[in-house]
Every structure is written in structure tokens, then in C-alpha cells.
Amino acid sequence: MVEDDPEIADLYAGFLTERCEVTVAGTVTEAIAVVDGSFDAVLLDRRLPDGSGDEVLEHIRTNGYDSRVAMVTAVDPDFDILDMGFDLYLTKPIGRSNLLAALDGLLTRNEYDDLLQEAAALASKRAVLKTKKPTARLETNEGYTALVDRLEELDADIDDLEESLSTDDYRAMFRDLGGT
Fold first, then answer.
1. Nearest to 15, CA basis, from 68, 88, 94
2. Helical residues (DSSP H) of 48-111, grouped into ranges
3. CA end-to-end span of the chain, whole Å?
4. Which CATH number goes with the domain that contains 89?
5. Taking the CB of residue 32, how many other CB atoms lie within 10 A of it?
6. Cα(94)–Cα(78) distance, rounded to whole angstroms?
């Protein structure tokens, strides 16, 4: 977890230690020094005292770490999120149950294949922008239109994949998901 407010960091860490081991960094510099490929999930604030959490996200993605990333921030989303490689965007304040649900969702996404991970991340971006931006602005934004088009392509690819799976394949997938 990358969070500069000690009270929030302690609160969230208390929630999360029920489910996982938690490492806390309070700055971009600390986070970049700590985050490596061993982390399954990263909860990342965008406003940090020495820079932006976006830099930490870029570090994670540039180094090819397979961590799922949730932006957990007071920064209202804007169209800049279209180019960011996070999996989930949560606007503070976040309660215990929502934070734990977000963590569970991120950890489950670790089980998805690349196609499903991309679809889940894009759907999250679409959902957050639809709640924060007027429809007229969404329809005229090229990045948002490209996102919607890519989601339609992914839906078609997922449908094709679904047709190729047998009942036994589905059982095996869900058994494997349930076992983690």
C-alpha cells in the first residue's frame, strides 16, 4: 500500500492484515524502492509528498511486474485515466468492506488470463468515467470512444473463447479459481 497519510495507512493496513501481509510506503521514492514482482496487489494513492502515484504505477508496468493495481485516491478521475495501467480506481473515503472487496477483486484478477484482465481494467475505467462525466463529453472524447471499441472487440474475443470451452473446461476454471 502506498499512502502518505499515516492515519489512513494505519487504518487500511489494519483492514487488510486480516487477509494478507501488508507493506506500507509513504512516498514515491519509498514505493519504487520496495515494489517489485513479488506483490500480488498494490493499493496506490495518486497524491504523494514527493510526486504522483502515477510514477509508481509506471514503475510497476515498465518493469513488467504482474501486480494488480488499485488507485485509492481523493483525486476525482478525469480522462487522463484512459492511458493509465491500473486495474481499479477507487475514490476516497473507502470503508472497510469496500477496501476488502477491492482487494479480493484484485487477487481474483490475478487468476484471469490476459484477455480477461484487459477487459476488467477497461470496464472499470468505463464505469468510473460514466459516473463522473456527462454523456455528451464521453461521446466526443476519442480516447473514451477507443476504449468502448476495444471493449466490444474483447467481448467478441471472450464470446469466441466461451464457445470453444466445454463444460469440463468451465468446471476446471472455476475449481481453480475457487482453490486460491
1. 94
2. 53-62, 96-109
3. 22
4. 3.40.50.2300
5. 18
6. 19
> Which cell numbers in the block locate residue 115?
484477455
Q: How do residues 104-146 score in pLDDT, each as one tens digit?
A: 888 876 666 567 778 888 999 999 999 999 999 999 999 999 9
The verdict on residue 101 lying in a domain is yes
Q: What is the DSSP pairing of strand 88-91 with strand 68-73?
A: parallel
The cell for 154 is 474483447
Residues 97/100/104/109 CA torsion (nearest 10 deg):
100
Q: Is residue 1 part of a domain?
A: no
**Residue-wise pLDDT tens digits, 61-101:** 999 998 989 999 998 899 989 888 888 899 999 999 999 98
Which residues touch 81 (CB under 8 Å, ≥6 apart)? 71, 89, 125, 128, 129
Q: In 3D, which of 123, 108, 103 has the Cα closest to residue 43?
A: 103
Give the residue carrying C-alpha cell 466526443: 140
Full residue range of the structural domain in which residue 69 is found: 6-178
In the numeric block, the cell 471493449 is attached to: 151
